[in-house]
Amino acid sequence: MSEVVELESIRDCLQAGLPAPLATCSADGTPNISHISLVQYLDRERVATSRQFFNKALGNDLDASPFAQALVVRPVTAEQFRLDLRYLHTATEGEAFEAMRANLEAIASQTGMGSVFRLRGLDVHRVLRCTRVHLPASTSKPAATPDALGSLEQFVRRLESSVTYEEATRVALDALDDLFGFRHAILLAHDPPTARLFAVASSGYAHSAVGAEVGVGRGLIGTAASRRRLVVQANMARSRVMAAAVTDGAGGEREIPLPGLVEARSVAAVPLIVGKDLLGVLYLESEAPSAFGGATEGLLRIIGTHTAAALAARGAPTAEEPGRPTTRAPQRSDGPSIELVYYQADDTVLCDSLYVVKGAPGRILWSMLKAHADTGRTEFSNRELRLDESLGLPAGNDNLEARLLVLRRRLADLDRGIALERVGRGRMELKIERPARLAVVPTSGPMRSAHEPG
Amino acid sequence: MGERIDIAALMGQGVAVIVATRDKQLRPEIARAWAPSLSDDGARFSVCVEAAPDSAMARNLEAGGPVAAMISRLAEVASIQLKGRVVEVDAPTQDRLDEVAEHVDRFVAETALVGVREATARALVGPELLAVTMQLTERLDETPGAGAGRAL
Question: Is A422 exposed, middle or buried (0-12, 13-18, 19+ CB in 10 A)?
Fold first, then answer.
């Protein structure tokens, strides 16, 4: 006799990355099987299945006979459950439709199978009965559910205690590991003018992700950003494929690769949104299958909301502490010089032939290096950077704190004798240990006018 | 002819097999199945279907109704669907059970390619099986894409 279970108890089986067979009947009574990319939990009585471009017969069947049955699997234990369904209607818009579309677009972007995964509609079904198929002999009891609310409260408290943008990124990633066991995480900031996301902090990887970039709309991370929705993949067989898919083009030595777990089984991309503004994306990976599905999705949304609010509050322009008198640093003449090259084409800065940054952080770094070379200045303020029109920072949401954080961490990672250190609120000091030689590679391309004297 | 050989070749892989039947009210019933094989003339398909005694699946099969079987390679995203009517239902012989064990081994190897651990893959196999033969009326290519549903 099959054991009847509550739909609520198998929410972890109903998520992205776990395709399920769905049986329906045609008008003449012939059974038909479709592979459904997503079976999505809607509420205690309803689920939705994806109707995609390729499963045309499915729609005909559901119109002819409303009964269907799906077979879903619990990823860790391999327990299987049959869902007896009665088709209600097909939705082509709304919250659930958009959530499913974001997940399918992420799959499509990873696999390059956009037409296959295009969502035509969301078939909504009432769950008539949910039964366990059979209990595998080796099934282990699921681990006790930790106190999510208590952990969430601690997470928020720790975020609130951080003072700067940089500290908030570190605290957020540390707390995700300590409190929720999310060991592998990358925090990316959104750069609206370039429609890209750049990594400002990472944890749990062999090398830092800071400075790595992802185009909005590309891959799982980019889809979470473009759709502004949580994207979860419960069963990633090859995370390196994903990592390759989300880094744009072959930039060679002038790109920072996005790290990824070779053995990642599940991933999540959480959009960080405040009001109407997309601030970035929190990307999580786990070696465990189904680590971010079910009720965890709600937790991730809350974590995203608080993280976004904390970063927004600490990334906004703040009053500066009084600056110390501008110092003229003594030029060190001993030791080999540091070779710094600036490429006007994309604002890339190389240090001793190693890639440092590009884009806005590259312009900022070069501006400071030039000022240092010309006048010996070492101290700079956020305010002057914001007022420097040659840097091309957008008014309003200029992401300056995020850009400076990338710059600081990239210079620290490279350890070539150049550092950018905070010396007070809104102020920083450029430290150069050896003589620096600066060279510019001009461009004749579309960026030429940006570098011509006004 | 070539298409039939392709189907037979597919069955020799570590494929996932899903079988669907229905009752008189057109309520579908779905189950996993193992050890798929095609008759030499390609007209009949045999498989061991997970079905507990007196279960809805067992009743539907024993009623000799219409049946569908989806056969999929997970590592290559290739699927076919066979449709027809049940013509034989019996307890599986020892030979068939040996074939089930061999198929499960191939299934474990195939699913490992997409990141499924062996213990997880083996846990999907149910303990109660019925040996079923169906007379085929339709063979469909169900590989996801524009050609899905094309008759083979």
Answer: middle
ipTM value greater than 0.90: yes
Provide, as residue numbers in chain B, all residues whose Cβ is less than 8 Å from the Cβ of A113: 144-145
Q: Give the sign of the dihedral formed by CA B20, CA B23, CA B29, CA B34.
A: negative
B138 → chain A, closest CA residue: A30
Sketch out chain A's domains with CATH numbers.
3-94+110-132 (2.30.110.10), 148-315 (3.30.450.40), 338-451 (1.10.10.10)
Level-2 CATH architecture, domain B2-142: Roll (2.30)
- The C-alpha R_g of chain A, in whole angstroms, comes to 26
DSSP-assigned letters across all residues of A140-186: PPPPPPP-HHHHHHHHHHHHHH--SHHHHHHHHHHHHHHHH---EEE
> d(Cα A37, Cα A52) in Å, to the nearest integer?
8
Q: For position A325, what pLDDT does the model report? A: 47
Query: From B32, which residue of chain A is nearest by alpha-carbon distance?
Result: A71
pLDDT bin (cut points 50, 70, 90) of residue A250 is: very low
CB contact under 8 A, A69 and B28: yes
Asked if A77 lies within 8 A of B123 by C-beta distance, the reply is yes
Distance in angstroms (rounded) separating the CA atoms of residues B49 and B21: 11
**CB atoms < 10 A from the CB of A265, how many?**
24
CB pair distance less than 8 Å for B126 and A54:
no
Can you say whether the dihedral through the CA atoms of A231, A273, A348, A173 is positive or negative?
A: negative
B26-35 pLDDT tens trace: 999 999 999 9
pTM recorded for the entire structure: 0.67
